[in-house]
Amino acid sequence: RLRKARLHVEKAIKEKKIFAVQGPYPIIRHLLRARGWVERKLPRKSRQLKQQPGDQKKQQLEKRAGRGGDKQRKAVPNPRGGAQPSLDTTEPLQHPLPRGKRNEGEAEDEDKKEDKEQCSEHSDDIHDLMSFLVQDQVPNFLWTIRLGNIDQELLPRIEMVNRFPRLNALCTKEGLCQSLQNLPWFEQVDLNTFFPRCYRLGLMGEQEAFIEDFRLTAARSLLKLALQKVGDRPGRTEQPSKSAKVPVMSHPMASTARLRSPPYPQLLEEALEVCEQHLGALEHQDIDRDTPSPCRTCIAWDRFLREYYRVAHEGTRLTLSKEQREQCQDVLRRLEEQLPQLGIEGKLNIWILKPSAKSRGRGIVCTTRLEEVLELAQSCTGSSPRVCEWVVQKYVERPLTIFDTKFDIRQWFVVTDWRPLTVWFYRNCYLRFCSRPFSLYHLEPARHLCNVAIQKRYKALQPDPRLPPDKIWSNTQFQAHLAQLGRADAWQQVIVPGMKAAILNAVRCARDHVGSRKGSFELFGADFLIGKDFQPWLLEINSCPTMSPSSVVTRRLCANVQRDTLRLVLDRKDNPTCSIGAFELLYREVGWGLGTAPPLAPRTPITPCVSPQAAVDSCLSVGLQLEVTGCSLKNP
Q1: Cβ neighbour number for residue 217 with a 10 Å cutoff
Q2: In whole angstroms, how large is the CA radius of gyration of the chain?
Q3: Where is the composition biased (Basic and acidic residues) (predicted)?
């Protein structure tokens, strides 16, 4: 067995097939071993991957060889179920069954799981012996959960790594918000058609823009509420729990003292005036006006918002004449032509606050009160911008629901190069459901945050018997549901093209701020919400998305996407025609660099490659092969 292990290791070194895995990725480990790769196992005590001195390796090898023999000729029982395969075994693609609650989290939590996983492996496994034999070898392939865990002197010597450095511009909420603001430089696409309005509270200019947006949205919402039928009037909203120091969600508070008193008579007229001024700004009729902002009027906004809260959240009724009703309908119709997000706004002016760099739904707060947002922003002014950074985003009040339950979509994609930009889209994805029926008048996390880490707290709750207990659907199940609704075409004609376009827009905007490294690649997880018109709305993009199976569906899909990722980045290098599973080319930039692009004719705006069919090579729409025309001037 020792001789066989030596021969296998020598072959792997010659063919550059030494790998290392840091994190809970048993599928990656099994698939690479089945390809003939040898693992250099990471130290269990020190989590950093460091190069072992040669004499240490020899001592370990001699010690290991002395303990060889009959023990190595048997398959060693695996504490996680089954037996560890021998050297020549081709391991089946199957994710281990979930052991308790394993969800996407901080790297520290994953490191603890990794230690537990590695410590449970039997020391007499043949793979342990081969790992000792390659301890002085630099891995050719590294799959890690965090680049910071890897020795920075060794990292540049590793040929292929599954992570890119400096992904804040794409994978933090603040960074994505900032990057997408540069979209007009890349595509003639309106950001508001796929990304809910978002502001960084740490910047005074954006905080002021949010205040104006909040006020304008309140005025529009008031017009919608005025047109509602009496039977559609909102009831009171739950009051937040006073016991919790930092409530996860914030609910509007009902004020019973003024519940029966009518609002002041000018409330509706003021809302109409503000909306008319806003329309003038949108239609560029405000160029010569002294006060271009519709919010800088003589309206007392504090009083206006107090009365709006009463109408929206406490059930105070508005009475309007026939002429006012027609005015409201006309203004809203004209606003709908100008504002792509009017359909998802709803009537309650709900906003969602998110910590910039946290995951799993931690720290998220929903609120309908401007003063609550500003109070939170004020609490962060004394801290470093990198320590306390929040974004506030318009909450989608009119999402598509399934059996009255909110859901979102986790969609995978891979970037194999940033220069030239090359993006691959995964055709399979999954849906994550909440645990209670959707309601805008009960804002607890069980109804509004689809993160698995949040919903596992409500394991005993079941929103609808037609949904599975693990609250996960595959995209195939979703397509069957759309067919039952009579919208089988929505998936391929609306949802998938919309997700592709949003992903491409995001990565193109962030590319110049991401650390590019030849030989690296990364699997990302984008989260989307679907509107009632089936349009997808990008919420965020996650680096290093969880591969831990939380359901029957994710157990299968997570294993498949890891298998197909290795096909894409490893097998395809040696065989460009090999199968890459469910991946398809979304975008490949041509003409990057000097002398690589053919001459360009006078250019018209280029549509990005986001069709459901196979992608074709596209050109970047700005900054390439710019041509200067003119005539020479003779000296006088």
Answers
A1: 23
A2: 28
A3: 55-73
Q: Of 250, 227, 393, 392, which is closest to residue 311 (Cα–Cα)?
A: 227
Q: Tell which residue, 334, 363, 392, 364, has the closest CA to residue 197.
A: 392
Q: Residue 205: which residues within 8 A CB-CB, separation 6 or more? A: none
Residue 319's pLDDT is what? 84
Provide the token pair at 448.
């509004």
- The pLDDT assigned to 187 comes to 87
Structure tokens at 2: 């020792």
pLDDT for the residue numbered 309? 94
What tokens does 214 get? 């909040």
d(CA 99, CA 550): 9
459: phi then psi, degrees, rounded to nearest 5: -60, -30
Same domain, 384 and 463: no
Q: How many domains does the chain have?
A: 3
Domain boundary among 395, 424, 439: 395
Q: What is the 3-state secondary structure (H, E, C) of 233-262?
A: CCCCCCCCCCCCCCCCCCCCCCCCCCCCCC
Rounded CA separation 47/56 (Å): 18
Residue 59, in any domain of the structure: no
Same domain, 469 and 513: yes
Among 366, 395, 424, residue at a domain's last position: 395
- Parallel, antiparallel, or unpaired for β 390-394 and 405-418? unpaired
Domain extent, residue 346, equals: 197-228+265-282+292-395
What pLDDT is attached to residue 337? 94
Same domain flag for 153 and 220: no
Rounded CA separation 294/296 (Å): 6
pLDDT of residue 292: 52
Per-residue tokens: 298: 């003589």
Residue 309, number of CB atoms within 10 A of its CB: 21
Dihedral sign (CA 96, 97, 100, 106): positive
SS (HEC) of 94-107: CCCCCCCCCCCCCH
Mean pLDDT, each 10-residue run in order, the chain (636 residues): 88 95 93 95 59 47 45 37 38 44 44 46 70 93 89 88 93 92 90 95 90 95 84 46 41 46 86 92 68 66 93 87 93 95 94 76 81 80 55 95 95 96 97 92 86 79 86 96 96 97 96 89 97 96 90 95 97 93 95 43 40 40 55 68
Closest by alpha carbon to 141, among 36, 260, 294?
Answer: 36
Residue 58: Cβ within 10 Å count: 13
